[in-house]
């Protein structure tokens, strides 16, 4: 009799344990489903918000952008000296010298009028050069650089690159090429606290962006890879050589390049 009751208790214990284990598993699955649903809703919300932000750029010039905010609120040591000396004045593309427009295309993205945000040919060439032992060079388009300056933070990660690619796609889908170029020329950094081509033209040449000559535009474009390191007032021998190269590329591209943007 004692063995009989012991067996019954053992079976009940096993059944109870299995029931509790199944209940715990069901609870975990329910929690994972809720978490997954929440993450999907969050992702969709962020996608919709980012789309609305880019649509707004069709009609509104951004008063602030992430790169400028990061420079001001989270400055590196050299930046602290100039964080209260920001120079910036927005100019429509029609008030920016054609020389300047062509100079940044010649310097930064010669296939700007042809690609849809990503220059696959430039990426392929950069990879091939790296495999041949050369230093890896950047292949970012003007659209990518605009997305980075407008919306991204400066750290390097796969998450940031993915977000940059998403915003690049949105810029290309929502805006036309002239508007992307206008945004870029008005937010890109030309030196400590110097944002946009109008501020750069006034700072370096004491004239408006509409009056920039071919040489002046080439010198400003030569700053763009590293405006904190390079100087054009006066330009070094290296900067003069780089400006020479940019002017040569401008002549090869010709004014027809700007007409392709329309």
TrEMBL record:
Q: Name one Pfam family in it.
A: Transgly
How does the protein associate with the membrane? Single-pass membrane protein
Q: What does this protein do?
A: Peptidoglycan polymerase that catalyzes glycan chain elongation from lipid-linked precursors.
> Which pathway does the database say it acts in?
Cell wall biogenesis; peptidoglycan biosynthesis
The listed locations are: Cell inner membrane
Location (main, coarse): membrane
Enumerate the catalysed reactions: [GlcNAc-(1->4)-Mur2Ac(oyl-L-Ala-gamma-D-Glu-L-Lys-D-Ala-D-Ala)](n)-di-trans,octa-cis-undecaprenyl diphosphate + beta-D-GlcNAc-(1->4)-Mur2Ac(oyl-L-Ala-gamma-D-Glu-L-Lys-D-Ala-D-Ala)-di-trans,octa-cis-undecaprenyl diphosphate = [GlcNAc-(1->4)-Mur2Ac(oyl-L-Ala-gamma-D-Glu-L-Lys-D-Ala-D-Ala)](n+1)-di-trans,octa-cis-undecaprenyl diphosphate + di-trans,octa-cis-undecaprenyl diphosphate + H(+)
Q: Which UniProt keywords apply?
A: Cell inner membrane, Cell membrane, Cell shape, Cell wall biogenesis/degradation, Glycosyltransferase, Membrane, Peptidoglycan synthesis, Transferase, Transmembrane, Transmembrane helix
Q: Which GO terms describe its cellular component?
A: peptidoglycan-based cell wall; plasma membrane
Q: What is the name attached to this protein's record?
A: Biosynthetic peptidoglycan transglycosylase
Q: Listed GO molecular functions?
A: pentosyltransferase activity; peptidoglycan glycosyltransferase activity
Q: Name one GO biological process term.
A: regulation of cell shape
* Occurrences of domain Glycosyl transferase family (ranges): 79-250
**SUPFAM superfamilies this protein is in?**
Lysozyme-like
Query: Record's InterPro entries?
Result: Glyco_trans_51 (IPR001264), Lysozyme-like_dom_sf (IPR023346), PBP_transglycosylase (IPR036950), Pep_trsgly (IPR011812)
Is the GTP-binding keyword given for this protein? Answer: no
- TM helices/strands, residue ranges: 38-60
EC number per UniProt: 2.4.99.28
Taxonomy, superkingdom: Bacteria
Q: Which NCBIfam families match?
A: mono_pep_trsgly
Family, per entry: Belongs to the glycosyltransferase 51 family.
């Amino acid at each position: 009799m004692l063995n009989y009751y012991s067996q019954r208790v053992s079976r009940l214990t096993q059944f109870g344990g299995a029931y509790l284990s199944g209940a715990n598993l069901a609870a975990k699955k329910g929690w994972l489903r809720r978490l997954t649903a929440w993450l999907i809703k969050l992702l969709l919300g962020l996608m919709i918000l980012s789309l609305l932000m880019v649509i707004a750029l069709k009609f509104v010039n951004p008063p602030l952008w992430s790169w400028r905010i990061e420079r001001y609120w989270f400055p590196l040591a050299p930046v602290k000296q100039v964080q209260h000396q920001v120079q910036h004045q927005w100019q429509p593309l029609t008030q920016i010298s054609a020389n300047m427009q062509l100079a940044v295309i010649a310097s930064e993205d010669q296939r700007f009028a042809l690609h849809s945000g990503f220059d696959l040919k430039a990426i392929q060439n950069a990879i091939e050069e790296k495999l041949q032992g050369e230093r890896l060079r950047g292949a970012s388009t003007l659209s990518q650089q605009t997305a980075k300056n407008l919306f991204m933070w400066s750290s390097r990660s796969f998450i940031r690159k993915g977000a940059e690619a998403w915003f690049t796609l949105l810029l290309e889908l929502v805006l036309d090429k002239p508007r992307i170029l206008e945004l870029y020329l008005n937010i890109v950094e030309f030196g400590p606290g110097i944002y946009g081509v109008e501020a750069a033209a006034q700072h370096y040449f004491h004239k408006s962006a509409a009056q920039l000559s071919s040489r002046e535009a080439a010198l400003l474009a030569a700053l763009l890879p590293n405006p904190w390191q390079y100087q054009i007032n006066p330009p070094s021998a290296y900067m003069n050589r780089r400006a020479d190269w940019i002017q040569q590329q401008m002549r090869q591209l010709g004014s027809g390049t700007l007409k392709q943007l329309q």
